[in-house]
Amino acid sequence: MALLVVIMPGLEVPTANAADTVQGEYIFRVAGCRGCHTTEADRKKNIFLAGGRALKTPFGTYYSPNISPDPVHGVGKWTETDFTQALRHGRNPDGEHYFPVFPYGSYTRMTDQDISDLWAYLKTTPPIARPNKAHDAGFVFGSRIIMGPWKFMNFRSGALKLDPSKPAEWNRGRYLVDALGHCAECHSPRNKLGGLKSGMYLAGNPEGPDGDAVPNITPDTETGIGKWDESDIDSLLSMGMLPDGDFVGGSMGEAVDNTEFLSPKDREAVVEYLKSIPAIKHKVQKPKPAN
Amino acid sequence: MARKWTKLALSVLAAGIISTSALSVSADEANDIKYRKSVMKAIGGTMGSMAAIIKGKVKQNHAVPLSHAMARLSVTIKDVFPEGSDFGDTRAKPDIWKKPKEFKASVAAFEKAASNLAMVSKSGDPAAFAAAFGGLGKSCGGCHKPFREPKK
Q1: Model's pTM, two decimal places?
Q2: Closest A-chain CA to B45
Q3: For residue B22, how many C-alpha atoms fall within 13 Å in the half-sphere facing its CB?
């Protein structure tokens, strides 16, 4: 055990490279920043990261903020420390809590190097001067102060620790799924307070984005994707194709806008990891609307 | 007086027709939706078969006939979304009919990608075929993303 403690921090130390914008752009793509921080109308005009996209959740409608490097409305005046605080601790530069619609529960697991590279890239994107839109989430889930106790219950900060008993590829796959890809944010069910239900990792979510059901992606053969082979998962990630030849739309279609950028090696790592997680029998059913 | 009654009768009749068409799916619309789904299944089946070839899951190499079938199938899509086929057992979004220009552009991109795949198939180059197949897949998603509701 003592040996492990000595070795593990050693494994975690990122190589102290200078921030790399090329690598940063890769992380930006794979982590899917652009999707939520850009409205559909802007995307058509090739304007990115100006925020304002409505994100409908069971807790209210949140509007993503401007994360372009505009000094007034965006993150132009931020330091790398501010950026790290946002991703790692879910706090804005004034120390206020972010709402967990921003998936910092996943991004907190990123390595220092990846955060640094991502920040370097973000600063190279065109600044857009557009003010942020206020959230529409009511008293409880619209209150930043209440997010303190919420985080105490539902959030643990810190980079993902490597599991030395598992191959490097598996660890890379887990990192891509849990930290960058933030798959669990939609594919794991949540409790009434919006925390991820324990023991239901990636087992499907009846109330995902826009109220749509999100499938179980554990290797359960009946209710999950246990019947898919490696190449089926690969096709979904690389081009959005399902095993029956259909192509996904909806939220996963959007996620494929990110996963299609995965390098073949990273895609393999994700496939290997997803094949290895515990199978959970859980049929996702959308709750019937009350009338 | 008689004229007044006729008018009233006509308006009652008209209201009846309007409300029936608004509340129930006519047989024609239901058939349109069924037909659309079966055409889509044919396309999905063709895509799935070509994917199996690309991945080397099967020994047969039907890249040429399947991609040509796909190119022929692709031209049906522009006809399977008639007005009125938005109500019933369908995931087609109203935007198909509200934004016809954008919808048409997406369908045209799909047709183009399908005919490109058929052309590339003749070269016999598996890598080029796989790349063109990826492009075609993108065009499928390019329509499903904005114009199809997720599964319920």
Answers
A1: 0.86
A2: A245
A3: 6
Instruction: Please tell me the distance from the alpha carbon of residue A289 to that of residue A58, in angstroms, as a whole number.
Output: 13
Q: What is d(CA A277, CA B74) in angstroms, rounded to the nearest whole number?
A: 39
In sign, the C-alpha dihedral spanning A45, A51, A52, A54 is: positive
Q: Any idea where the domains of chain A sit in the sequence?
A: 13-154, 168-276
pLDDT per residue over A213-233, tens digit each?
A: 999 999 999 999 999 999 999
Q: Report the complex ipTM.
A: 0.79
Decide if B103 contacts B93 (C-beta within 8 A).
no
Band of residue B4 on the pLDDT scale cut at 50, 70, 90: low
pLDDT tens profile A156-193: 999 999 999 999 999 999 999 999 999 999 999 999 88
Q: How far is CA A56 from CA A21, A62, A63, in A?
A: 32, 7, 9
Partner-chain contact A245 B46, CB within 8 Å: yes
A37: β partners: none
A-B contacts at Cβ under 8 angstroms: 65
Residues of A with Cβ-Cβ distance to B58 under 8 angstroms: none
Which residue of chain B comes nearest to A256, CA vs CA? B141
Which residue among A239, A240, A245 sits closest to B48, beta carbon to beta carbon?
A245
Q: Which helix (H) or strand (E) holds A74?
A: none
Residue A248's nearest CA partner among A262, A235, A265, A264 is A235
Query: What number of CA atoms fall less than 13 Å from residue A262's CA on the CB side?
Result: 29
